[in-house]
Design brief:
Shape: globular
Bound molecules: pyridoxal-5'-phosphate
Low-confidence stretches: none
CATH topology of the largest domain: Aspartate Aminotransferase, domain 2
Helix content: 40-55%
Strand order of the largest sheet: 5-13-12-11-10-6-9
Mean pLDDT: 93
Number of helices: 20
CATH superfamily of the largest domain: Type I PLP-dependent aspartate aminotransferase-like (Major domain)
Number of domains: 3
Distance between the termini: 39 Å
């Protein structure tokens, strides 16, 4: 198209002012405000200008576009005002999916957030005394209850920071700044691509003293490495991998024994840190908070939004004298959490105190049997009515994810979906573009849907989305 022809098209574009005065935008301006509508109008007009410049529009298609200008501005406005963070349906079967925000919260947590967040609270106020209080007391009392059965003899307390990475940083900086921390080479892990034990160690000011080899570290290796600069023995949970075959690793109890003998505390970074024994859920050999403290670890660190099933947070539980020195570290002030975290953590912990595990969504999902999931899958299958889609219910496995029990899987039933005209990747993209987006797995040319991680009320939304495709 000649530049003369293009400049004629440009001339046909109305000004923003003219567009805003058009009758079909009156009610939109009334409901959404003129500045948002002006922005949307500018964006749509700029897009048309660009399409003229790149030769995509001729006179006829420009006229068509101008006729639909009101609609285009309205839809631009809708997408500009839509939340970027939104809920999705997790049909992957990965219970703690870090990319999907890990643990969904318990209803009681949500209710308590709603009740406290829109009001003032006693976050740091002692109501009885009428004076300044501490924010950690709101959950410390519940942790004391939950941990009491472990150690009647030792005083244990718990503080909360932003996440487990922050918990490890705070603990290392408090307990071992400028001193040495002994860690097995088999535990120098990287988690989630950005949390690396050696890097966190450097930032904390502690000096890493590696011992043993990748596959074998003996108690004697730790023993030989202890000197008068040693401040801490650190054990790190191998959250996302396993070492099998010719391996050796001292137990927490053996490390505790050595630490006590030489006057060096032991800290365990549990990562996921379950608050219940996962044997009941068919998961074996997974370290948990009570077990580690019972074995004598002086401090444990763990996440709030992994197996605990609460909000993002880092928990530090352990000997009160050590926890109290962490609380006085100025770093604690920088890493502390807000009232929303306390508001959702407290009801989550209360569910543990009441042993109401079914109220915690991740524990509920873990407890679902293959049979229960299978019958939901069967009824979903019957509710999808389209000739193009084939659905089979097959055996499969769900995983915990989020750095827990890397080799433990839960037997499940999967919906295996194929489409007559779409590849599995295209089909999964269609599912992602539905509202709410449905996130599935693709394996061997099929889309796999695991209802273990789907809230029961969402089953019908998946059936509807499949039918629409
Ligand atoms: C997940 C994990 C972390 C990081 O925890 P965040 O809460 O994501 O900061 C650290 N250590 C271990 C062993 C973990 O599994």
């Amino acid at each position: 198209m000649s530049s003369v022809a293009k400049s004629e098209l440009y001339r046909e574009l109305p000004s923003v002012d003219v567009v805003l005065r058009s009758p079909d935008l009156v009610s939109l301006i009334e409901s959404q405000g003129s500045s948002a509508v002006t922005d949307a109008a500018r964006t749509v007009l700029a897009r048309l200008r660009e399409e003229i410049s790149s030769g995509l529009l001729d006179t006829q298609s420009l006229h068509l576009a101008l006729e639909g200008l009101g609609k285009a501005i309205e839809s631009q406005l809708r997408s500009a005002l839509r939340h970027s963070l939104r809920s999705v349906i997790n049909a992957t079967g990965v219970i703690l999916h870090t990319n999907l925000g890990r643990a969904p919260l318990a209803q009681s947590a949500l209710d308590h957030i709603a009740e406290t967040a829109t009001h003032y609270t006693n976050l740091e106020f002692d109501i009885a005394a009428g004076e300044r209080g501490k924010r950690d007391i709101h959950v410390d009392r519940l942790f004391r209850k939950l941990l009491a059965e472990v150690k009647a003899t030792t005083d244990l307390s718990t503080i909360v920071v932003n996440n487990n990475a922050a918990a490890v940083l705070l603990a290392l900086n408090t307990l071992a700044d400028s001193g040495e921390v002994i860690v097995s080479r088999g535990e120098l892990v990287e988690i989630g691509g950005s949390f690396r034990i050696p890097d966190v160690m450097t930032k904390s000011g502690a000096i890493l003293r590696e011992v043993g080899t990748t596959n074998r570290t003996r108690l004697a290796d730790y023993e030989r490495a202890i000197n008068d600069r040693t401040r801490l023995l650190l054990r790190v949970h191998r959250s996302n991998f396993e070492i099998t075959g010719f391996t050796e690793q001292p137990s927490v109890g053996e490390l505790v024994g050595l630490g006590r003998e030489r006057g060096v505390p032991l800290m365990e970074d549990l990562g996921s840190g379950a608050l219940v024994d996962l044997h009941n859920f068919g998961i074996h050999g997974e370290a948990n908070v009570l077990g580690s403290l019972r074995a004598g670890a002086d401090v444990v660190t763990y996440s709030g939004d992994k197996l605990l099933g609460g909000p993002q947070a880092g928990l530090l539980s352990g000997r009160s004298d050590l926890i109290s020195s962490m609380r006085s570290n100025s770093l604690f002030r920088a890493l502390r959490v807000d009232k929303l975290t306390y508001a959702s953590l407290e009801p989550t912990l209360l569910a543990y105190v009441k042993r109401d595990y079914g109220a915690i969504p991740v524990l509920k999902m873990m407890s679902l049997s293959k049979g229960e999931i299978g019958s939901r899958a069967e009824s979903l299958r019957k509710n999808v009515s389209t000739a193009k889609i084939r659905l089979n219910v097959i055996d499969g496995e769900s995983v915990i994810g989020g750095g827990a029990a890397p080799s433990s899987v839960l037997p499940t039933r999967l919906l295996a979906v194929t489409h007559a005209d779409l590849s599995a990747n295209e089909l999964s993209a269609r599912l992602r573009s539905s509202d709410p987006p449905i996130i599935s797995r693709v394996e061997e040319g099929r889309v796999l849907i695991d209802l273990r991680t789907v809230l029961p009320a969402e089953d019908s939304k998946i059936a509807a989305a499949l039918t629409r495709i």
